[in-house]
Amino acid sequence: MSQIPAEPPVQPAKPAKELFGADCDTEIDGSQVVAFCHNGYPQTDLVRLHVECDRWWDVDGDGAAVAVGPAGRVELSGRCWKEVRSAWVSHQRQ
After folding, report:
1. Dihedral over alpha carbons 37, 26, 76, 72 (to 10 degrees)
2. Three-state secondary structure call for residue 64
3. Closest CA to 80 of 53, 48, 62
4. What are the CA-CA distances from residue 42 to residues 4, 68, 75 (Å)?
5. How far apart are CA 40 and CA 93, in angstroms?
6. Contact 50, 88 (CB under 8 A)
7. What is the C-alpha separation between 84 and 65, in angstroms, rounded?
8. Minimal CB count within 10 Å: which of 13, 50, 71, 77?
9. pLDDT (tens digit, 9 = 90+) per residue, 29-50?
């Protein structure tokens, strides 16, 4: 008969959540996109707005990276000629 341990084996500790990345709210209004970002962390975050247009002939856009320092705020904007399919903000360490 095999013995069953009284307690499960010890699991390795999960790494602490990394405190990095500006909080961004993205708004789409017709063909216009605006993202408002606030960095509540001590490291600078390079944020970039990406806009995917709905029409196949409309050019998608990737904005320039903008540095958002600790406690900093930034507004990013982009557009399509017609409808916007999706928009998001990417983050990168400086």
Report:
1. -10
2. coil
3. 53
4. 48, 10, 19
5. 14
6. yes
7. 20
8. 13
9. 999 999 999 999 999 999 999 9
Tokens 């962390």 belong to residue: 41
Distance CA 18, CA 79 (A): 32
User: Distance of CA 36 to CAs 9, 14, 33, 47, 66, Å?
Assistant: 46, 32, 10, 10, 12
> For the chain, give me the number of helices (H) and strands (E)?
0, 7
Picking from 45, 36, 50, the residue whose alpha carbon sits closest to that of residue 92 is: 45
Query: Does 1 have pLDDT greater than 60?
Result: no
Structure tokens at 57: 């002939």
| Both structure tokens of 22 | 């500006």
Record the pTM: 0.79
Give the torsion through C-alpha atoms of 62, 30, 24, 92, to 10 deg: -10
Terminus-to-terminus CA distance in the chain, angstroms? Answer: 59
Tell me what the mean pLDDT of segment 52-72 comes to.
95
